[in-house]
Write a structure and sequence with these properties.
Structural class: alpha/beta
Number of strands: 14
Number of helices: 14
Largest sheet: 8 strands, parallel, barrel
Order of helices and strands: EEEEEHEEHHEEHEHHEHEHEHEHHHHH
Radius of gyration: 20 Å
Helix content: 25-40%
Strand content: 15-25%
Length: about 350
Amino acid sequence: HLQFLPTRPFRLLYSATSCFQGAGHRTSMNGEQLPTRPWQRRCLVELFQPGHVVKICAPMVRYSKLAFRSLVRRYDCDLCFTPMIIASAFLKSGKARDSEFTTNFGDRPLVVQFAANCSQDLADAALIASPFVDGVDLNCGCPQRWAMAEGYGACLINKPELVQDMVRLVKNQVECPQFSVSIKIRLHKDLTRTVDLCRKVEAAGISWITVHGRETEERHQQIHYDAIKIIKENLTIPVVANGDVRSSKDVDLVHQLTGIDGVMAARGLLANPAMFSGYEETPWQCVQDWIDIALEHGTTFTCFHHHLMYMLERITSRQEKKIFNVLSSTSAVLDYLGENYGL
C-alpha cells in the first residue's frame, strides 16, 4: 500500500502480503482511492552524454531527504540520492521505511542508496522501492567502523564476488531494463584491486560507478585524482567522481583531471545548495527557497535549523553565527532572519 498525496510527500508502506508492483491503485492519507498515475521512469544512463558532466547530490544521512533534494533541484542538480538506508531494516520495519524513504512526483530523477551485506536483502529492498525511483545504489564506500563491523560499506570492496552477485540479483529481480544499478566505492591501497572490482561489476551489468577518491582509512587527505582517472580509463561505463567538490570550479577541474562523466557533492552542497548553478556563495534567494520548502514539507526544526547553519556559514559574521546557531524554535529562526536579512 502507498500513502500518497499528489503534491506533497508520500511514504512507502509494505507488508508481507502486499507488494507495490502488484498494487492496482494508490491510496491517500485519508483512505480514498486515487486514480493510478503513470510514474515516468528515467533511464539514468542517458544522463551521461559527451561534453556534459552530470551533477549529483550525494547520499547524506539525515540531510539528503526530500526537502533538501527539492531545493538543489532548483539549482541545476541533475540527479539526487536518498540517504543511505539499511536494506534489512527497510524490509522489516515500517518505521524505517516511513522515516527514511519519502518522495513525490517532482522528486525525479532519484536513486535510493542501500547498505546491505546480503544479496537477497538488497534485491528485495530494491524491488519494493523500484516503482518510485529510477535506480538503486549499493554503498561500498562508508568507512565508519559500525558499518564495516556489520559487513556494510567499504568492507565490500574486499568482496568483489559478493558485490558482483548483488548486482546480478537486483537486475534479475527488478525486471525493468531502464532501472539503473550502481555502486559507490572507495579505493584500495593497491589500485589494481579497485580496477579489478570495477571490471567485475561492469561485467555483471552495472550501470555506472561512483568513486570516492580516498582509501578506506583516509579521512581528510587529498583526493587521489590520478586513481580516479585510471579507473575511468579502464571502464566503458560512466564513472562519477566524489570527494571535496565544493564549487562549480571544482566540477570543471575534476573533469579536466580525470575525464569522468559526473561529479557527486555532499558537504559542498550543504554549504551552498546553489553551487551547481555557479554561485560561489549561497544566494539569499536560495535561503528563502529553503525556508519555503522546509515549511511546506513539515521539516523538523533540527533539520531545518542545521541546513540553515550550513548555508549561512560563509555569508554571516562570527557574531551572527553565535546568535543564530543557538536559536531553539522555528519561530525564533524566522523572526531572526526577517529582522536581520529581510527574509
